[in-house]
Fold this sequence. Notes:
Helix content: 40-55%
Distance between the termini: 26 Å
CATH superfamily of the largest domain: Replication modulator SeqA, C-terminal DNA-binding domain
Shape: elongated
Order of helices and strands: HEHEEEHHEEEHEH
Number of domains: 2
Amino acid sequence: xxxxxxxxxxxxxxxxxxxxxxxxxxxxxxxxxxxxxxxxxxxxxxxxxxxxxxxxxxxxxxxxxxxxxxxxxxxxxxxxxxxxxxxxxxxxxxxxxxxxxxxxxxxxxxxxxxxxxxxxxxxxxxxxxxxxxxxxxxxxxxxxxxxxxxxxxxxxxxxxxxxxxxxxxxxxxxxxxxxxxxxxxxxxxxxxxxxxxxxxxxxxxxxxxxxxxxxxxxxxxxxxxxxxxxxxxxx
Length: 235
């Protein structure tokens, strides 16, 4: 659906950005290697390379235990190699590329579902409306809490639902202020209106879609979470 495609697009854009950053790092490393190689070559040509015998450090060898150890090792295994000290004054400052801050994809929102899917043989644990997460562990509770949310959003509009044919069934009413119009499973909303709960999952889904459209709200943005992500919702 549209929501999932949007998430996939954002991931693709992220990985493209990572690839560009890697290419920048490769270029920077290549430049560093060139500069150091050039500096080394220039230092040798200019006589600025100093050879240091690391088993002598300017101290009295007879009084320096460390020097004696080094001398013994040198006699046993051969002289220590000479170390070249490079004059780094000729090396230019390199400004490394700092990668842009990217979203942490390991912290993902639990998988959600739209009202255009079948809810048959599914169990909810919550839903999101107007970016507000509301918990509901049955489809009937989801309908009731959606109605309560919309009632307080626009009470006058909600109370008008019982008089609109497209918001009610052909043989029974889904909304009514008269309890005689409803079954015993009906639930009162805001102390003024009953909503019929004697319905299956997909009928409730369809009724929620009608409600959202009546309120001019996005059906796609209404998200449903199944019980398999309950531990993530409650975290």
